[in-house]
Amino acid sequence: MEKLFILGDSGLVGSAIIELLKEDYDITGVSRDQIPKAKWKHLKFDLESDQLLPILEATQPSVIISCTRGDFEKQLETHREIVKYASQTNAKVYFFSTANVFDGIPNSVKIETDLVNATSAYGHFKINCENLLTEGLAQNAIILRLPMVFGKKSPRVKEIVAALRNEKSIELYENLIFTSIWDTQIAFMFKHILESDLRGIFHLTSKDVMDHTTYYRKFLHNNVLIEKGNIKHQEPYYLALGSTRQELVDYEYSNDDVIRKIKKALKKFKQ
Ligand SMILES: NC(=O)c1ccc[n+]([C@@H]2O[C@H](COP(=O)([O-])OP(=O)(O)OC[C@H]3O[C@@H](n4cnc5c(N)ncnc54)[C@H](OP(=O)(O)O)[C@@H]3O)[C@@H](O)[C@H]2O)c1
C-alpha cells in the first residue's frame, strides 16, 4: 500500500482527504492533539516545537500532503525539512496554498499561470512556501490553491448557524468577489490529481464568481444581524480563482453547487 503522510490531519481539508482515501492508502497524519478512535496512524506533532524530519525518516512516505496551519516562520522550517526528506527519497509533496497569493493585485480572477503578488502576511508566507518547495523539488512539488472552503463542520458553516440563531452578527463584504469550494469536492479533486500523477499548479475552485452579499443572502434570512464590511480597495476586490487545467473538467463545481450543500448542512441545525 502506498504511504501517505498528512500534516494537518484533524483539519477541514486534511480530514476530508483522509475520509476519502483511508481504505486505499497507508496513512500517517500529524497535528497537535490526540484524535480519539482515529482510523489512520495519528501522531501528536507541534510544528512550533517538534522536528518533522525524524518522523518522516521513520515513516518513509512516498507522498506528503501539507494542509497544516501554524506560525508562518515555523511552518517554513517544517517545509524545509520536507524538502530535505523528499529530495533524498523522490517523494511527491502536495502543498495546499491560497487565493491570497494574489491579494496584492485583487483586480480580476486569477488562473494558474498568473504571476503571484501578495500584500498580506498570509499571502507572502504561502508564496515563500510555494517557492521553497518548487525550487527544492521541481516537478515533485504540486501546488493546490484554494478559494474560500466550506464544509459541514467548517468554521464558516458554524458562523452561519450562529448568525441564523441570532447568537452573532455576520459580516458581509459588499465589494468582495470570490470563488468557493466544498471540502469533500477538494478531496475528490485531490484523489484524481494524485492517482493520475498530475503535476504543476492547480486551482481547486468553483468555475464561477459571485459577490459575498449575493452568496450569503441565498441562505441567510432577513432577521439575521448583518454588519456591512468593506475591504479597503478600489471596488470590486477579487479573491477569486479560475482554472485552465483541463484535467479537472469532470470535477467542475459552481458556487450554487456549494450553496446547495451549505443549505443542506444548515437543515440539520434547528433555527
Ligand atoms: N479553509 C479555507 O478556507 C482555506 C482557504 C485557502 C487555503 N487554505 C489552506 O488549506 C490548508 C488547510 O486548511 P484547513 O481549513 O483545513 O485548516 P484547519 O481546519 O484550520 O486545519 C489546520 C490543521 O493544522 C493543524 N495545526 C495547526 N497548528 C499546528 C501546529 N502548530 N502544529 C501542527 N499542526 C497544527 C490543526 O490541528 P491542531 O489544531 O489539532 O494542531 C489542523 O489539523 C491550510 O494550509 C490553509 O492555509 C484553507
Automatic annotation (TrEMBL):
UniProt KW keywords: NADP, Oxidoreductase
Matching Pfam families: RmlD_sub_bind (PF04321)
Record field: transmembrane: none
Keyword Oxidoreductase: yes
Domain RmlD-like substrate binding: 3-214
EC main group: oxidoreductase
Pathway the protein contributes to: Carbohydrate biosynthesis; dTDP-L-rhamnose biosynthesis
EC number: 1.1.1.133
Keyword Oxidoreductase: yes
Stated family: Belongs to the dTDP-4-dehydrorhamnose reductase family.
Role: Catalyzes the reduction of dTDP-6-deoxy-L-lyxo-4-hexulose to yield dTDP-L-rhamnose.
Name this polypeptide is given: dTDP-4-dehydrorhamnose reductase
